[in-house]
Design goal:
By secondary structure, chain A is mainly α. In chain A, 72% of the residues lie in helices and 0% in strands. In chain A, helix 1 (13-26) crosses helix 2 (32-44), helix 1 (13-26) runs parallel beside helix 3 (46-63) and helix 2 (32-44) crosses helix 3. The chains are: A mainly alpha, B mainly alpha.
Amino acid sequence: MGTTREGTTSGTSECERVVRALWEYLDGRLAPLEVAEIERHLEACAGCRSHAEHEAALLAALGRLRGSDDDAERLRTRVLTALREARASASSEDRGAS
Amino acid sequence: MSPVRDPVSQVEMSPNAFEAAAIPFLPDVSRFARSLTRETDAADDLVQETYLRALRGWHTFRPGSNVRHWLFAICRNAFLESRRREHRLRESSLGDDDALPAAQAHARAVAAGHEHRLDQLDLGPAIATAVTDLPEPHHSIVVLVDMLDHSYEEAAAILGVPVGTVRSRLFRARRMVQEALLAYAQDAGLANGRSTAGGRN
């Protein structure tokens, strides 16, 4: 179901098939033949092209939300210290039990 | 002295072996934790908890399994437990569906004249909120696939669900984000009548 710039729905079965495949197309999960078919349709159909641009913009914006890994060295030191303390605590408990 | 091995799994049990296997993935686990929590301090606590749990469970790790996936699964379980304790966990009761209804969200945006407003608004904060508000497991799937670039197969391995389930839940989650953004655009339009509210110029 493609949507034209005027907001009406073209509703052809070809549009419906393309819209159903858009996420997988944008995720790079389709075979080359299917990609070529979708790209042919997007060139010809303004409604579906607009839809694809809309979805692609959403995926790009989601990708920009990735948490940063600044201050990685501080976190590494913190985790290694916690692991060594946990091991020291476990081995002193073992010694106490034996 | 030869390393101590678990007689069943044949995993080397020494703490040094654990560190050698798990610490290289610390930046990945940290990014995952920050993407899940959206809060730096909470993310650092979650990473530390993940590694402590992983150390305790190292004897259960199966040789040949993917250490990174194993750490991500532990991290996500720890995250869900903390959210549950804080009564902040939203779990989805929704079924799975496919991509077609996304067309309806787009059609509504076009019909309401919000399509270009969405292009002009700075959607970063609104998208972050929309993702954080997603129920589980949709939230984790969007984080893994859309924010951290995992394949559907990797996300399926981490979450312990079939690839088809990842696919359908991912599409459903994206649609929920689209719906939230549409509501945000409508509010922005109604609130100030301009399309640049808080946005890029």
